[in-house]
Amino acid sequence: MKWQSIEVLPMEPDANVVFESETYLVTDGCAVATCDFCRGNGAGKPWAGWSMYGGIGAGLITHWMQMPAPPRCEYCDGTGDVHSLDGEWRGTCTCPAGKNPAPL
Fold it and tell me: Exposure check for the chain: N or C terminus, fewer CB within 10 A?
């Protein structure tokens, strides 16, 4: 991941998108926060811009980057299944992956 200048938008306006929003890390050169970048097509005019409800005001943002991937569980590595060192299955993990297993 690399900081991108505010000169480069995360998404361009698109007449085919009714509404879309994604959260990014942003900075004003001093602080780091999160802010949504939204785009849509209102009244036939495509638009895109930073939300005014982010941790840093839209007009103060100098750089942005994608959010990092969340950390994986140290017990099941995000699979939901816990195994001992010899590979024996020990049960279902209590992390989100274990509580909400992927469908088969």
Answer: C
